[in-house]
Amino acid sequence: MKRGLHAWALTAIGTGIACAAATCDSRAGQENAAWAKSGPHSWLASVEHTQFVETQRKWCHIFETTGIDRVSKGIDFGSTLFTGDGIHPSVGGIVPGSGFAGGLVYNLERALSSAPLRFSGSAEARGSYNGFWTAGAKLDIWGSANSAQDQHIHATLDVEHYSLPQMAYYGEGNASSLKNQSLFGLVQTTAGGHIAIPVPGGFGVTGGLAGLWNTTSGVSGGPEPSIDRTFNASQTPALDTPTTYIVWGGGIDWIYPVSPRMNGLSSTLTTAYKWFHDTSGSPYSFSRLDAIFINRYHPASKTDLGTISVSARLADTATSGGNQMPFYLQPTLGGTDINNVDALRSYRDYRYRAPSLLVFQTEYTHTIWGPIAALAFYDTGRVAEQRSDIGFSQFHHSLGAGFIVQVGGAPVFKFYYAWGGGEGSHTTYTLNTNNFTFSAPAGVF
Q: Model's pTM, two decimal places?
């Protein structure tokens, strides 16, 4: 008898939840029907209407469910609130050290009926409580004609502006000292575009052209000394010199297999060679090679065994004729860099800085539940002031563990604790809900 009552109760609850969900969906259907009858409406007005109705519907679903399903519906609501076409709140940091930032992003996506092209545009502005802010716009254009390998030409146009009032600097080189920590301000603007053209075999050819404007400053009243009180121009290239660049270059990318797969081995190689020609603020012209190779392995199994990834990254800078690379354009290792890339995570953000670097990383991720995955990692690497110093000696090391929260396949929250390397430990958490990713300062294209 008890079993019968229990089964009846579960059936009644399930039926009630289904009916309630149907009520949410029927309300949304009624609003959409009324909207259609009141038309015709412009494309943009329809985008705003769809976003409003879908946000309401997903919010309604949260309160018409119970238990673990309510958490799942909450994740669905978050994805609708922060992503997709229309205007959305944008929450997350700007660069490491910027603190919590918030703003708005406006997204639009549309395919042409008259030509095999798809467009996706975004405009965003974010500011933090401690004075950091950024704003920009981006337009992606994809080909959409039939393709044997489902790969298409992809072009991007973007403009971005950053105001970063307090950035950490420890000096150049692989042996820089924590005792020399100081602060500088950076204002940077980039504008340009790039294109990626797929070719057979999983290869792609890329090219780009951009303008880059940089201005630095000292920092008064900060928690650390201003950069000009600790370093001089002979130690820190372009310390007192604003610079303007024309940047052009290209590269070759490779992916295997061409068609994405969940299990097995997959590899990617990304390379780019760029020339930075100064049009003001000379002598600071240089060229730079960036190469990143990533191997991922997800075993095929009835139970999820997680994913192992191994990556190698090289940045190699060349100068001639007395030119130098400005310190604020140099790549960094330690914590998270200015492009929000983690490396040597037990060290402070921007800890080591120089024109060239070499870093290796191993990561293991395993889904715990739904969007939450456990993370473990090992990093090792070094920076080099001279090209001849790039090698496999004097490497710094980090170990760590944490977890990641993903929405729509993209990480929106990351937390980890890292140790090793001789400078203590480093705890980091990052939040970023916006689905428009800036190329970040010095990323250019």
A: 0.88
